Amino acid sequence: MKKIYVNEEICIGCNLCEVFCRLAHAQSDDLIKELKSKTAPVARVSIEVRKPVSFSVRCQHCEEAPCVSACLTGALKKDETTGAITHNEEKCIGCWTCMMVCPIGAIKQDKLRRKAVKCDLCEGRDIPLCVANCPNEALIFAEESDDIKQNIDDNSICYDPA
Amino acid sequence: MIEYEGTMTKNVLKYLIVGNSAGGIGAVEGIRTIDKQGTIGIISDEPYQTYSRPLISHYLAEPCPIEKLWYRPADFYKKNGITTFLGKKVKKIDCRHHSVLLNTGEKILWGKLLLATGGSPIIPKIKGVPQQGVFTFTTLDDAIAIDQYLNKLPQDNISAVVVGGGLIGVSVTEALAKRGVCVSIVEMRERILNTILDEHASAIAAKALQQAGVDIITGSTVNEVKNVRDNTLSAVLGSNREILCNLVVLAIGVIPRVELATDAGIKVNRGIVVNKNMVSSSPDIYACGDTSEAYDFIYDECRLTPIWPNAYIGGKVAGLNMAGSSAEYPGGTALNSLPYFGLDITSAGIINPGNSSFEIIENLSNNNYRKIILKDGLIKGMIFTGIVDRSGIIYHLMKDRVNTESFKKELIADDFGMASLPEEVWRSRLKIQAPETNTNKCTASAGEIR
Ligand SMILES: Cc1cc2nc3c(=O)[nH]c(=O)nc-3n(C[C@H](O)[C@H](O)[C@H](O)COP(=O)(O)OP(=O)(O)OC[C@H]3O[C@@H](n4cnc5c(N)ncnc54)[C@H](O)[C@@H]3O)c2cc1C
């Protein structure tokens, strides 16, 4: 499946990925209006900065996703065909158990609606908005190559029972 | 030798699971990743398809169609080819003949058996218990029974006494409070939630409950429940104080349901003893979840860790092994998230260290309390309140036994995040390669990009 990767060497922490993530999950496509509104959607990506390092973090759609195992209600699932980790917000009760087991802190609290929210790869769009709008092209939307897979296996952090 | 494949009778099954909850479902999903065909049976004395137990408080707060509680879609059993025996109870296990006997008289033969029998509520020896108006709170039927009882009462001025100020007590309290019931919690120890929170976080929780109108009585217990008149009870406290109420909910804890295992001669400590493959002392019998003592990576020993995620993961590992794989339980620990009364509190591991060999660092500077309990640089426990979305980063440092000595101050900083970790840690977690190992400068994508 295609995932979003970050090239942290050229990420300058401009926060535009957060801005566009909020827009991607807003009711309308009026950027200013949405960002100023009291019910502005929560960004599902966060910029992590410790100068000079900066990079953006979002759901990695783990092979063996700890959040799926931990979800109390069955709201978080692995899509059998795409492999993406999907979240049924209707089933979510905002217990935040998923946040306790996500190794990278990629799941966010929408306190207003009391729902956990996370990157859905901008389902329905060809390219996720954060990737499309990254001014430095620090975000890459790409098929998981064997090299990446290898790297993931080497650093396996996700719970892998096998 | 019993032939499990291709048998037409539903009473000969390759895999048999007792318990249709987190552990049992984890096992099905584990088995089916390896064995798509082998016959599976699930038995539960609860009549429902698998539901999310923690949601019973949501049901009680706001009764809804029970389908909303389903943990898996309605077609789960059909899709996975599972024979169900719901509303039936296993009376006896015969290890030697690989069979179980149900209360209906049915006998089922199995190849591999999983005990995911969970726990049952502890019912204290109190005068006047059981009686009408006294409930426990661990099953959907409990929630339905309380709902029906409440519906029969005159709708104003209903009051309840909840015995036990742990997680289950607080969850039923929230549900009742949401229905306008006036609740008193009676907790034996000095503070509510004392096993999963420290004093400070407990106080935050107590304040939230009190603001919602809950009366908290600590250092006390209920010695007797008297029937005063129809639907009116009196809970007599140790101090001889009496609280008039319409219902009493006993929520002092759950104990592992180990009777079947004990009777069958399987090794039981506080729970069913299992190894890292979730196998009990009887080679073809597995156990997981609240009924088992599985590996706790904080204590480095097997313990009861009765929480939903551990039951599911233990079940999945058991299932993989039952189907012939050699999976190991990665270890779990007590991990709690308190979503009640608008609170956002997460905690894990050792919260109240008993001795001074632990180092405690905390940040009380704003509304978001953060506390980390360390031993020799290793994280042994954590509490976060308010903003809890980074708890998992800490939890995994704890689980992976990362020595945090050089960056421990960062762990409680207001802006703690992935970038607070040493470079090699965030790189490996985010699967970002170090620049020098890269040939094509594209750190993360290593390979062709479209
Ligand atoms: C009100 C409440 C709130 C909770 N909230 C949380 C929470 O927020 N987070 C969290 O992580 N955990 C929570 N828990 C704990 C969580 O529900 C348990 O850890 C989890 O359900 C354990 O799953 P299990 O599969 O081991 O057993 P259980 O869920 O207890 O299921 C065992 C099943 O086996 C059946 N069974 C047992 N013996 C037999 C027999 N002899 N014959 C037939 N059937 C049998 C039982 O009836 C039951 O249906 C909560 C629990 C309660 C009660």
Question: How does this model look, in words?
Answer:
Chain A has 162 residues and is an alpha+beta fold. Chain A has a single domain (2-155), classed as Alpha-Beta Plaits (2-Layer Sandwich), CATH 3.30.70. Chain A has 6 helices and 8 strands. Chain A has a two-stranded antiparallel ribbon. A two-stranded antiparallel sheet of chain A has the order 2-3. Chain A has a two-stranded antiparallel sheet with strand order 4-5. The longest helix of chain A has 9 residues, at 16-24. In chain A, 45% of the residues are buried. Residues 149-162 of chain A have low confidence and may be disordered. Chain B has 450 residues and is α/β, with parallel strands linked by helices. Among the domains of chain B are: 2-120 and 255-322, FAD/NAD(P)-binding domain (3-Layer(bba) Sandwich); 134-252, FAD/NAD(P)-binding domain (3-Layer(bba) Sandwich), CATH 3.50.50. Helices cover 23% and strands 27% of the residues of chain B. Chain B has helices at 22-34, 56-61, 76-79, 140-152, 167-178, 199-211, 259-263, 308-322, 391-399, 408-411, 423-430, and strands spanning 12-18, 40-44, 82-86, 90-94, 99-102, 107-115, 119-121, 134-136, 159-163, 182-187, 215-218, 222-229, 232-237, 242-245, 247-250, 254-256, 272-273, 285-287, 292-296, 301-303, 335-338, 345-349, 359-363, 370-375, 378-385. The longest helix of chain B has 15 residues, at 308-322. Chain B is globular, with a radius of gyration of 24 Å. Chains A and B meet through strand 2, strand 3, helix 3, helix 4 and strand 8 of A and helix 8, helix 9 and helix 11 of B. The structure holds flavin-adenine dinucleotide.
